[in-house]
User: Which sequence fits this backbone?
């Protein structure tokens, strides 16, 4: 309800998963989203974030989550503020994911693959992860890849308003026109996922 109070219309619950918890996390998130009251003005979609995995585990875990009914699959990208295995961006983009979170200093080749597959690259408000937002914006705009603004909250104090999130995009180098296009693309994507 904090998101509703902050002005959001749709969110995805995307807990971090690996082989140790993917079954129980998928089950819990699916149950939560199925029981979410439809009368609320906040849509809640089931998701997971594939996090800190050996490269060969990314694709099978994405398939497992999708087969279980998870609608939003995020790959934890090569952020510069955590130790992430080199090649994680590419392995995630080659899997059945929807969003590559905090992709760090993503290469042109990986941005092109994201474009080809229609995978969103995250622009985030999360401390540390946001340090490479300008690089991600520049590469995405150069190659025509899709972007998504996200607060990547892990605790209630991480939740910012949609207006503050727009400022994150502007600080990363996005014009208002580009932000409006991002929101239109994301709205279409979420409508497909809801169905």
Assistant:
């Amino acid at each position: 309800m904090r998101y509703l109070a902050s002005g959001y219309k749709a969110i995805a619950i995307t807990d971090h998963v690996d082989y140790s918890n993917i079954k129980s996390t998928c089950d819990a998130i699916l149950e939560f989203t199925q029981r979410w009251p439809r009368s609320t003005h906040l849509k809640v979609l089931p998701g997971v974030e594939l996090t800190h995995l050996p490269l060969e585990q990314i694709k099978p875990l994405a398939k497992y989550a999708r087969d279980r009914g998870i609608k939003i699959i995020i790959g934890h990208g090569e952020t510069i503020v955590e130790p992430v295995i080199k090649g994680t961006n590419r392995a995630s983009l080659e899997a059945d994911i929807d969003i590559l979170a905090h992709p760090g200093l993503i290469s042109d080749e990986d941005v092109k693959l994201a474009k080809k597959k229609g995978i969103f690259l995250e622009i985030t408000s999360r401390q540390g992860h946001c340090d490479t937002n300008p690089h991600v914006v520049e590469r995405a705009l150069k190659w025509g890849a899709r972007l998504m603004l996200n607060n990547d909250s892990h605790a209630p104090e991480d939740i910012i308003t949609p207006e503050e999130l727009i400022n994150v995009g502007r600080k990363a180098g996005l014009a208002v026109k580009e932000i409006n296009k991002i929101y239109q693309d994301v709205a279409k994507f979420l409508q497909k996922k809801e169905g």
About this structure: The chain has a mean pLDDT of 95. The radius of gyration is 16 Å. DSSP finds eight helices and six strands in the chain. The chain has one domain: 2-194.
